[in-house]
């Protein structure tokens, strides 16, 4: 992954460009010391002067009103908030006319930002004050009074708290006065810029000491960058929270959410004072000291699935390769590609206007349908359907392009991260962003008859702790669909969604990441120094059985915040903290056994266990046979793992019930 950087040959600004911001995925506003507000169109490569402000207008920051309600007034969406060096902030309309000017601070007004819900705005100044204002520019409260300049202040994603800088300290102030202030020393130099991401709830800071650091909301350090030669002057999270960008003197660095670097560019621009991402997370704009506005596009994003590798080589070009046959194909699209998903024998490409669904056996005849809006944050794939998350809402399609469902979640879809939503073959699970203890599971139609969105059955599951990550199992019938979740204590639970009385069963603790196998009910999790496979998660009702059917393998040098990406044939693909991939065989034979059981091939399952002669494998067979009422198989398996009390119980069942009854009838009668 790297940045493809472009700019106009001659700078359109005279002097420093202090702030840039995106109006939509194709238009950028910029403002600088030449008092001009410019609008850039990336499709036509045009630049127009929107307005020329008075000579005493020196902007320090700019923020466009958040696009919350698509059905609202477009004029309202284009309102621009600009902070200036004379202590004022201005509310400017889309034509460049100043609607309102407010004297906010003594000295420069260094930061101004609309709240994420659009209900108000905050400003921070050289006088050390942080103030909250109404949307019309009326003062609500002075939140912070300090004796040090506040160089940056931002809202929390839920608009309930403010993060601000105080020298080399970071402070989180909750607007609810009963909550305690969180304050920690973050750098050795003055902190110049901060960013807080809604999807991963992480904070990144940059300072004069040349370091950028990632923090959680409790002030615990997640990662720290290498030392840069110059102060960090700007940084910004991508909307999805999987990347962030650092700007310094003649430097742009693209980093992963864990802090490791994807690429480093050294444009001859001087200091980069402002960086902004487009809403689709594929482009960024940067305001530079030499008057240029840089534009960058992410290319060389790579996706793999089995023997296929897909790479975005240009804005509209995708290259796909079959590693086994070494066959290469190049796919060209009419519009810019913004999202890619590869899996389940399909390649799904979303452009600004359309979605293309390719079968891996036929590239030239994709299924195509139009998108509601061009701001797509995520594409999820399952065996029978596709989930597209965009600002207009969540939509589920079949691989034939038929709209199956449009679930209504009750909150803004763009705030969903990948850990907060999971797609199964017949259901969609979402963590409620207003109450993260609540999980909503929507039933999806699987036939050709499509129900209206109001007919989607919703199952609501409430956990006792805040949920951080969810994952739906990918196999089995709907009434046996399992949901695995991680809470903020890093405890792993599993629940059968369709149980009349859903019970959360604990599988383990200190789990960092989880994923289900796409072909079986094998659940794999990652701990700090080991990878763990729960071969029979339903055995959690019996702690002894759970321990017997769990496989663990020690791994070293995983780094900070590793994650398990996928499981195939019992081999887990793990992304280390430094971004490198590691493949670990953790449950090859158990997954093969699970496939035999799913196909009702009990003789083959017995033969596999007798060949391998592994106690864990016999334990898995015993539990699976018992759950599927195969008493004869279960008796042999329990005997070989020395569970003699189970053997005696099975013999009792078989002897006390007439032989003419089937094993299933005997089990139910017992």
Q: Report the CATH superfamily of the domain at 2-299.
A: YVTN repeat-like/Quinoprotein amine dehydrogenase
**Proportion of residues in β-strands:** 35-45%
Structural class: mainly beta
Terminus-to-terminus distance: 60 Å
Helix content: 10-25%
CATH topology of the domain at 2-299: Methylamine Dehydrogenase, Chain H
Q: How many DSSP helices?
A: 8
Structure description:
Helices cover 11% and strands 45% of the residues. It has 670 residues and is mainly beta. Among the domains are: 2-299, YVTN repeat-like/Quinoprotein amine dehydrogenase (Methylamine Dehydrogenase, Chain H, 7 Propeller), CATH 2.130.10.10; 604-669, no CATH class. The strands form 14 sheets. Strands 1-28-27-26 form a 4-stranded antiparallel β-sheet, with no helix packed on it. A hairpin with a 2-residue loop joins strand 33 and strand 34 (346-351). Helix 3 runs antiparallel to helix 4 (602-612), helix 3 runs parallel beside helix 5 and helix 6 (631-640) packs antiparallel against helix 7. The chain is elongated.
Question: In short, what is this structure?
Answer:
The chain has 670 residues and is mainly β.
Output the keywords:
670 residues, mainly beta, Methylamine Dehydrogenase, Chain H, 4-stranded antiparallel sheet, 8 helices, 11% helix, elongated
Architecture blueprint of SSEs:
Elements: E1 2-6, E2 17-22, E3 27-32, E4 36-41, E5 46-52, E6 59-64, H1 74-77, E7 80-84, E8 88-92, E9 98-103, E10 109-114, E11 120-125, E12 129-134, E13 139-145, E14 153-155, E15 161-166, E16 169-174, E17 182-185, E18 191-196, E19 203-207, E20 212-215, E21 221-224, E22 234-237, E23 243-248, E24 251-256, E25 261-265, E26 272-277, E27 283-288, E28 293-299, E29 302-305, E30 308-312, E31 317-322, E32 327-332, E33 337-343, E34 346-351, E35 354-359, E36 362-370, E37 376-381, E38 385-390, E39 393-398, E40 403-405, E41 421-423, E42 427-431, E43 438-443, E44 458-462, E45 467-472, E46 482-487, E47 492-496, E48 505-508, E49 513-516, E50 523-526, E51 530-534, H2 543-548, E52 550-554, E53 563-568, E54 571-575, E55 581-585, H3 588-598, H4 602-612, H5 615-627, H6 631-640, H7 644-656, H8 663-669
Antiparallel strand pairs: 1-28, 2-3, 3-4, 4-5, 6-7, 7-8, 8-9, 10-11, 11-12, 12-13, 14-15, 15-16, 16-17, 18-19, 19-20, 20-21, 22-23, 23-24, 24-25, 26-27, 27-28, 29-30, 30-31, 31-32, 33-34, 34-35, 35-36, 37-38, 38-39, 39-40, 41-42, 42-43, 43-44, 45-46, 46-47, 47-48, 49-50, 50-51, 51-52, 53-54, ...
């Amino acid at each position: 992954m790297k940045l493809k950087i472009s700019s106009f040959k001659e700078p359109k600004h005279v002097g420093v460009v202090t702030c840039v911001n995106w109006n939509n995925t194709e238009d950028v506003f910029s403002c600088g010391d030449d008092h001009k507000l410019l609008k850039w169109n990336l499709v036509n490569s045009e630049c127009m002067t929107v307005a020329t402000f008075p000579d005493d207008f020196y902007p320090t920051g700019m923020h466009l009103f958040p696009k919350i309600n698509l059905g609202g007034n477009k004029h309202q969406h284009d309102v621009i908030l600009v902070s200036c060096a004379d202590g004022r902030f201005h509310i400017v309309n889309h034509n460049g006319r100043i609607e309102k000017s407010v004297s906010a601070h003594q000295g420069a007004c260094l930061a101004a930002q609309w709240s994420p819900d659009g209900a108000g705005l905050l400003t921070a100044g050289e006088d050390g004050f942080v103030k909250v204002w109404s949307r019309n520019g009326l003062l609500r409260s002075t939140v912070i009074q300090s004796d040090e300049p506040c160089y940056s202040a931002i809202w929390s994603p839920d608009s309930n708290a403010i993060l601000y800088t105080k020298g080399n300290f970071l402070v989180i102030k909750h607007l609810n006065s009963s909550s305690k202030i969180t304050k920690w020393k973050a750098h050795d130099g003055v902190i110049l810029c901060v960013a807080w991401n809604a999807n991963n709830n992480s904070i990144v800071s940059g300072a004069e000491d040349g370091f950028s650091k990632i923090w959680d909301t409790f002030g615990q350090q997640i990662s720290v960058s290498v030392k840069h030669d110059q102060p960090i002057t700007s940084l910004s999270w991508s909307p999805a929270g999987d990347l962030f960008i650092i700007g310094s003197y003649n430097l742009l660095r693209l980093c992963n959410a864990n802090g490791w670097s994807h690429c480093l560019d050294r444009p001859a621009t001087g200091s980069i004072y402002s960086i902004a991402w487009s809403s689709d997370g594929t482009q960024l704009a940067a305001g530079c000291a030499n008057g240029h506005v840089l534009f960058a596009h992410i290319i060389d994003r790579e996706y793999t699935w089995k023997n296929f590798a897909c790479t975005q080589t240009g804005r509209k070009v995708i290259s796909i390769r079959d590693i086994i046959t070494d066959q290469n194909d190049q796919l060209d699209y009419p519009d810019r590609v913004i999202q890619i998903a590869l899996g389940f024998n399909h390649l799904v490409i979303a452009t600004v206007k359309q979605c293309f669904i390719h079968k891996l056996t036929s590239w030239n005849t994709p299924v195509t349908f139009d998108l509601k809006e061009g701001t797509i944050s995520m594409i999820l794939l399952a065996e029978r359907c596709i989930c597209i998350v965009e600002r207009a809402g969540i939509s589920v399609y079949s691989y034939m392009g038929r709209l199956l469902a449009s679930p209504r979640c009750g909150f803004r879809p763009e705030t969903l991260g990948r850990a907060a939503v999971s797609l199964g073959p017949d259901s969609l699970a979402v963590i409620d962003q207003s109450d993260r203890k609540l999980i909503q599971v929507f039933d999806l139609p699987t036939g050709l008859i499509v129900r209206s969105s109001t007919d989607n059955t919703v199952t609501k599951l409430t956990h006792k702790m805040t949920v951080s990550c969810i994952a739906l199992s990918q196999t089995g019938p709907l009434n046996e669909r399992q949901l695995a979740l991680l809470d903020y204590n890093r405890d792993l639970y599993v629940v059968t969604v369709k149980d009349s009385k859903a019970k959360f069963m604990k599988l383990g603790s200190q789990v960092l990441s989880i994923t289900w196998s796409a072909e079986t009910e094998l659940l794999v999790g990652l701990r700090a120094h080991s990878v763990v496979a729960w071969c029979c998660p339903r055995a959690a009702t019996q702690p002894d059985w759970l321990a017997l059917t769990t496989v663990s393998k020690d791994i070293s040098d995983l780094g900070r915040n590793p994650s398990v990406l996928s499981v195939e044939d019992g081999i887990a693909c793990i992304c280390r903290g430094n971004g490198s991939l590691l493949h670990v065989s953790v449950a090859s034979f158990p997954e093969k056994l699970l496939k035999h059981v799913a196909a009702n091939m009990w003789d083959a399952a017995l033969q596999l266990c007798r060949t391998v002669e592994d106690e864990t494998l016999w334990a898995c067979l015993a539990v699976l046979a018992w759950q599927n009422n195969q008493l004869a198989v279960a008796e042999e398996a329990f005997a070989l793992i020395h569970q003699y009390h189970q053997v005696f119980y099975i013999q009792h069942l078989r002897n006390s019930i007439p032989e003419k009854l089937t094993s299933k009838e005997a089990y139910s009668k017992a």
